[in-house]
Amino acid sequence: MKLGLIWGYWGALPPANLVETTKLAEDLGFDSVWSAEAWGSDAFGPLAYLAGQTSRIKLGTSVVQLSARTPTATAMHAITLDHLSNGRLILGLGVSGPQVVEGWYGQPYRKPLARTREYVEIIRRVLARDEPLSFDGEFYQHPYHGPGSMGLGKPLKAITHPLRREIPIFLGAEGPKNVAQTAEIADGWLPLYYSPFRQEVYADQLAAAKEGFEVAAMANISVCDNVADGLLPVKMMLGFYIGGMGAKGKNFHTDLMARMGFEEEAFRIQDLFFEGRRDEAVALVPDEFADEISLVGPIGRIRERLAAWRDSPVTTLLMYPSSPDQMRLIADVVNDG
Question: Is the N or C terminus of the chain more exposed, i.e. has fewer CB atoms within 10 Å?
Fold first, then answer.
């Protein structure tokens, strides 16, 4: 079991302790550090900065939104950052949701699976650099030959030689078909929330994964005396994602909670959130569900519950930054196994 530090995307301002906490994680034996993007900070910038401040820890994007960049632009970012970090990049990709894609990026949200497959294939071809890029897909054409084309495009090969012909590609996915495709075409999976106590939810989708396939799962980790207090931030996060991170009838997080056995609560949380009753929505998140996707409580309890994670497909536990003492405790417990 490996341990990763995840910063997520920035709020109103950059995190004040970005470098210091990441360097501590590296010193404590954390395997990776991850950044994200929503509609503010980008995913690559913080990692490029951290690449110059660290030497061993892997640098992962969790996740780069497909609509933010063409696949060739993402491949250029990956080539550049992989060189700057001496081969430490893990490229995490995700389609996001229709509210972000259409609202922020001003693009139609359609056929996310087909689009993801094309996107990954193009990146792999660019990195392999076997020949000039020629691709004729539904979403991407190289050279472009659609409406408005001047007919002057020609296949090109990346000027910069990639440090690695194969950079690990992880996909953020939640729906059954999306997870199944991830197991087929990617090197790893980034679930938003995963319960090692309900492995059957994704067992069929992960069965076809190739050898060496990795699962880097968010485990909301908090060493505390009171479990209920430790679960409150988790319930607040779940209330926001399940209730408000999507539209009625099109919220992947709500659907996932329903598939995990909490259907009645999931849709009631969404109703309350849209009614503006957010405190009630958070209170309705079952402690059982929040606890299953977390490692919360006294260190002894965390050590005991960690056994379920070790007995799951998860290969890396991702945790948010916390105090140096907590990070040391968690590193000792995880690395002890």
Answer: C
